[in-house]
Design a protein that fits this description.
Layout lengths: L1 H20 L2 E2 L4 E2 L2 E4 L5 E4 L4 E2 L2 E4 L5 E4 L4 E2 L4 E4 L2 E4 L4 E2 L4 E3 L8 H4 L2 H6 L14 E3 L4 E2 L4 E2 L4 E2 L4 E2 L4 E2 L7 E4 L4 E5 L6
Parallel strand pairs: 1-4, 2-5, 3-6, 4-7, 5-8, 6-9, 7-10, 8-11, 9-12, 10-13, 11-14, 12-15, 13-16, 14-17, 15-18, 17-19
Antiparallel strand pairs: 19-20
Amino acid sequence: MIRRLLQHFRRINRQRELLGLLNSCGIHTELLGSIVKRHPDGRIVIGRDSHIRGDLVTETSESQIAIGNNVFIGGGSLLDCVVSIEIEDDVLISYQCLLADSDNHSHRYSVRKHDLSDWKDGGRHDWSKTISRPIRLCRGAWVGARSIILKGVTLGEGAVVGAGSVVTHDVAPYTIVAGNPARVIREIPVDER
């Protein structure tokens, strides 16, 4: 009994710590993952009735993660934001998914060869040398386990990403995609929406 009570209080204290890192959080939202603001001006906003088990990371002062109402983000998932990651209402993101709105390193070796030494020398990284574009998951989208959503992708309303997929291009509303790279499997008929 005492052990369960202590676990409960630890969980409450952990949630309070996480809530302190958010710019806004709706009622009945549970935070069980982690929040890392690598720049204090990065913004994270979460709506109501959501359940966040994944990790939310803002890299720059421009980083904005906006999560709507009734959103689930599974354990082991990572949202790594340089510019913008927007997740609308009723979205499901399964476990061990990655959403990255940036390449994180330059494609050019002459530029990225200094990245490790820059990190060792105070953790600075020049984000202007990497390509970044916003990610948007529209209402009702579902991302299957261990999928990767890359920079610049929009998942349309009700879109479904099959487990283990790598999404490099926009997905039309009510369309199922799967594979690496993700390809259209089929459109979801009106009577299944």
